[in-house]
# Entry
Amino acid sequence: MDLGLAGRRALVCASSKGLGKACAVQLGLEGVELTLVARTASPLEATAEEIRQESGVAVRTVAVDITTAEGRDAALHACPEPDILITNAGGPPPGDFRDWDRNDWIAALDANMLTPIELIKATVDGMIARKFGRIVNITSSAVKAPIDILGLSNGARAGLTGFVAGLARKTVAHNVTINNLLPGPFETERLHNTLTALATKTGTSFEEAYETRRRGNPAQRFGDPVEFGQACAFLCGAQSGFITGQNLLLDGGAFPGTF
# Structure
């Protein structure tokens, strides 16, 4: 399927690796000009060069902390009129809510709620004026099924989800959609780091922790980041203008509910 995206411009956050990179790669294959953002320059530029070689599209890189006002200004200066915005940030650390203070909560809100909102605020009116816009927020399956040790993430991402639910109904009449992608366990560096920490905590090997988690998923495997990127690209496509305010769960069937 041709998604009708050739020549569009996308700003993709946290895109040097993991699921952000997967989204950028698939958009590049659809002919989208990319501006990639991440904190560290070297892996970011390596990803950009990989995409250039694979798809031939123009790729800019901006090595900044997108959770700061200065970082957002730099990213938007490099890509002032994106047709596509992919918001993404690493999740806050797990733990017991009794150990978190106000600074912990503010950091989580800045990264996983307020930064996406600020980026949407800076770009959505231009999308409305041009009669095309696709905003996709990478959140977490924990929005659908909260995990007790991920309280910071649960709270911050749920706040973003509530905000999007209201705004998405206002922008869709102008062919500007806003949706959320909720990943479960995908084969990424972050998953491996989490399983390594779990193995250390429980006194097992990484291999044992990996297999236990894998077998615990109805799909009997972890997600392939390529699958995630393709889902993102579809939501950004010209054919997806009737989908807005939705939370697309990609978790291999782990969530046991009907809705």
User: Anything to note?
Assistant: Residues 145 and 255 are 7 Å apart (CA to CA). The beta strands are 9-12, 33-38, 59-63, 84-87, 133-138, 176-183, 247-250. The chain has a mean pLDDT of 95.
